[in-house]
Design a protein that fits this description.
Blueprint: E1 7-11, E2 21-23, E3 35-40, E4 43-52, E5 68-69, H1 78-90, H2 95-102, H3 105-108, E6 118-123, H4 125-128, H5 139-149, E7 153-154, H6 155-161, H7 164-172, E8 176-181, H8 200-211, E9 218-223, H9 229-242, E10 246-250, H10 257-268, E11 272-275, H11 281-293, E12 298-301, E13 313-319, H12 336-347, E14 351-355, H13 360-367, E15 371-376, E16 387-392, E17 398-399, E18 402-403, H14 404-415, E19 419-423, E20 432-435, E21 452-454, E22 459-461, E23 468-470, E24 483-486, H15 490-500, E25 506-509, H16 519-527, E26 533-537, E27 550-555, H17 569-581, E28 592-597, H18 603-626, E29 634-642, H19 645-659, E30 666-678, E31 681-690, H20 693-707, E32 717-722
Parallel strand pairs: 9-14, 9-15, 10-12, 10-13, 11-12, 13-14, 16-28, 19-26, 19-27, 25-26, 27-28
Antiparallel strand pairs: 1-2, 1-4, 3-4, 3-5, 6-7, 6-8, 17-18, 20-24, 21-22, 22-23, 29-31, 29-32, 30-31
Helix pairs in contact: 1-2, 1-12, 5-7, 8-9, 17-18
The structure holds adenosine-5'-diphosphate and zinc ion (ZN) (2 copies).
One zinc ion binds next to loops.
Length: 727
């Protein structure tokens, strides 16, 4: 009888929607989740064994053998592989690219895990034979030697207390022996800082989450800014640490990690690790390994932290669950919240989504009974919520874009030694330069957009494609040299504020002022000093930072957001206004918010201000139901771009034609994108709506393999965005 040659299916980090099957050489046994090196065209690639004995569509003679197996213990545990399979299916994305998002670069390059064992240091026989008299020249060496006399220590502990130099000196004298060892699990000694006495609402929330231990349950924790959500997180975590379990906290932005990290470290005194895009490859792998070995207790990270291979994950928390940056906006466009829920289901653990301004999706899930709704009605320390006042710009004299009322109120607060915050969602000096003679405006040559005038760096910058140009001396149309800025950005407002409030320190927070590494931290530090100060900035101000001394918030210009074509615009405006306003009055004084607008009667503004976000969101959800928009329908979006607009249109038209047989789908488009041209390319989109998720996904699964064979698909650049957020 002929021997059966085993075949394995390998997930390879390539953007192709197909299976890669290989032969497993005799005598090689390898489990799913382990890495292998395989021939791929003229190269070799590192992949992960995904399936053994698949139903291969290929002849065995067509298959090549695996070149080498890298390990016998899986780098990707089964639950993580299930998560990646789910993600690839749900987002209709090639498994290879999903794998790339989940596996640290060094592992994709084939580094061996055995190279990354922890090092354990002990005294050698020579070291044991020493006496204190041998170290009279160096107090540092003496200290380390004395410490090692009491027992072995790991490299992490050693380097936290002693210098690498001291270690090297003792190693050079052969007094220390180094041995490779498994990374040890973390050690919890109890609270390092006492917990706060919970309010009733907080206690109900903590109890609910604790009772769900060991089960998959989703909770929405809706609590106004400053209501003590973070305290709830901390108290949900404490009992898990007693049992040596692990917690993942997902945050939308890197900027928020240092603050939060500190708060968690102070409370627990356990290893808390940050995970975000600014880590080096080495730091990433280290965090990944520490999650796998149970060495780290808590990981605080951005989106892709949800793919870490925790040893015993028993709670996932997502802070600011409404935040759009939880959705990856390019390549593999997953929503971290939605995949984290799937992860919790696989791990059989609870997941807690916290925010002051829940997404309509999450509120809908509460209404449907899929999420358990927890609410914190009041600020924890008893501070009042800020009050809103609309400033009708049509009735006011303006100075540098600020109404007289606004200026008077700023003066009042500053004279009391308080901080004032101004929110203007446009960075740079002015949105464009304009010719005073003929009205010509500076436009990007490659995008359908104006170029922003940046006075400080003396350039015209396109905020869409990043192209920059020097400031023109003359009008591009009539040649006049009378060019002037139109409109106002944060850079200009800062300049004017210096004139109006000459002696007051001013801190500007926007992408330009925080570009340098460490700059954001330094600015936040200034803001945390008491004393009169003006803080101005873009939507960065809405991101969960704690500004204890702000008593007045001024929203300089809300009108740009009032008339948008995107059906999500009202929700996003409601969240933004509420979050910015929430920065006010977190200290002892009640806060106030002034909204400058030309449209004080606008229904949306009235609703948010009169009734608050919670009520506004519920009526917005009702409106989505009446208009059959998400979350009442499922949405998928094809986007395409090309140098020729017609190609995009034709390609989308071809999809429309192919989909006509699918009655359960409702199509909208092809439509030009709101930004019609970007970096020289025209952009079009097609919306697919369906009441039935399965019908939508079924149609897409049938369409994609067909679509990939269309010649036109190679002439345009395209992407599919499931549950798209930006239209
Ligand atoms: P959130 O995360 O909802 O914005 P925080 O957890 O940061 O709120 O809490 C806001 C402030 O209230 C913090 O200064 C915190 O120390 C305080 N705080 C939270 N819970 C309590 C409590 N139960 N008793 C007293 N102060 C509290
Ligand atoms: Zn541009
Ligand atoms: Zn001109």
């Amino acid at each position: 009888m002929e021997a059966v040659v085993p075949v394995i299916r390998v997930a390879l980090p390539v953007p192709l929607r197909q299976h890669f099957d290989y032969l497993l050489p005799e005598n090689v046994d390898i489990s799913q989740g382990c890495r292998v090196r395989v021939p791929f065209g003229k190269r070799e690639l590192i992949g992960v064994v995904w399936q053994k004995d698949p139903d291969t569509p290929y002849e065995l003679s067509q298959l090549k053998p695996v070149s080498a197996a890298l390990e016998s213990v899986p780098v990707l545990p089964e639950k993580l592989r299930q998560l990646l399979n789910f993600a690839a299916d749900y987002y209709h994305h090639p498994l290879g690219e999903v794998l790339t998002a989940a596996l640290p670069a060094l592992l994709r390059e084939g580094r061996l895990l055995s190279d990354y064992k922890s090092t354990l240091y002990t005294l050698s026989p020579a070291g044991l034979a020493c006496t204190a008299a041998d170290f009279t020249r160096s107090a540092k060496q003496l200290a380390l030697w004395q410490r090692l006399l009491t027992g072995a220590i790991t490299e992490e502990v050693l380097l936290a207390e002693y210098s690498r130099n001291t270690l090297k000196q003792l190693l050079a004298k052969s007094l220390i022996t180094a041995t490779a060892t498994e990374r040890p699990a973390y050690d919890y000694q109890g609270l390092a800082q006492p917990a706060l006495q919970l309010t009733v609402d907080q206690a109900i929330a903590v109890t609910a989450v604790q009772q769900a231990q060991g089960q998959f349950r989703s909770f929405l924790l809706e609590g106004v800014t400053g209501s003590g959500k973070t305290e709830v997180y901390l108290q949900c975590i404490a009992p898990l640490l007693e049992r040596g379990e692990q917690v993942l906290l997902l945050l939308p932005e890197i900027g928020l990690t240092p603050q939060t990290l500190q708060r968690f470290e102070q409370r627990f005194n356990v290893p808390v690790q940050a995970w975000h895009s600014n880590l080096s490859d080495g730091e990433r792998l280290n965090c990944w390994l520490n999650a796998a070995s149970g060495t780290t207790a808590i990981v605080i990270g951005t989106r892709s932290a949800l793919f870490l291979p925790f040893k015993k994950l028993s709670l996932i928390i997502i802070d600011e669950e409404h935040d759009l940056s939880l959705k990856q906006q390019e390549g593999f466009r997953y929503h971290a919240r939605d995949l984290a829920i799937k992860r919790a289901a696989l791990e059989n653990c609870p997941i807690l989504l916290g925010t002051a301004t829940p997404s309509l999706e999450s509120l809908y899930n509460c209404q449907q009974g899929r999420f358990i709704h927890l609410q914190l009605q009041n600020r924890a320390a008893g501070q009042a919520m800020p009050s809103f006042e609309l400033i009708d710009l049509k009735q006011q004299q303006l100075q540098y874009g600020l109404a007289t009322t606004s200026i008077t109120q700023i003066r009042q607060q500053l004279s009391r030694g308080k901080q004032v915050m101004l929110f203007l969602n446009r960075r740079g000096f002015a949105p464009a330069l304009s010719c005073q003679e003929c009205g010509w405006l500076t436009e990007c040559k490659r995008c359908s957009a104006f170029t922003t005038y940046h006075k400080h760096t003396r350039q015209l910058l396109c905020h869409h494609c990043g192209a920059s140009r020097p400031i023109p001396k003359q009008c591009g149309d009539c040649g006049s040299s009378r060019l002037a800025p139109v409109g106002q950005g944060t850079e200009q407002l800062e300049e004017h504020l210096h004139h109006l409030f000459a002696d007051t320190p001013i801190t500007r927070l926007d992408r330009d002022s925080t570009r340098r590494k460490g700059a954001l931290g330094a600015l936040l530090n200034d803001i945390n000093q008491p004393g009169a100060r003006i803080i101005l900035g873009t939507q960065m101000l809405a991101k969960g930072h704690h500004f204890p001394f702000v008593t007045l918030v001024i929203i300089v210009d809300v009108d740009g957001a009032l008339y948008s074509a995107d059906f999500r615009a009202p929700e996003q405006l409601g969240q933004l206004l509420t979050q910015v306003a929430g920065r006010a009055g977190r200290g002892h004084d009640k806060g106030k918010v002034l909204l400058q607008t030309q449209h004080p009667e606008h229904a949306l503004l009235q609703d948010i201000i009169q009734n608050g976000y919670a009520s506004f969101a519920r009526s917005a959800l009702l409106e989505r139901q009446q208009t059959a928009l998400p979350p009442y329908q499922y949405l998928a979006l094809f986007r395409t771009e090309a140098l020729q607009s017609e190609l995009c249109q034709q390609w989308l038209q071809q999809i429309v034609a192919w989909l006509t047989t699918h009655a359960a789908l409702q199509l909208m488009g092809p439509l030009l994108c709101p930004l019609e041209r970007k970096a020289g390319k025209y952009r079009w989109q097609l919306h697919l709506y369906s009441r039935h998720r399965a019908a939508l996904h079924h149609a897409l699964a049938e369409l994609l393999p067909v679509l990939e064979r269309w010649p036109l698909s190679r002439k345009v650049k395209w992407q599919l965005d499931i549950d798209a957020l930006d239209l």
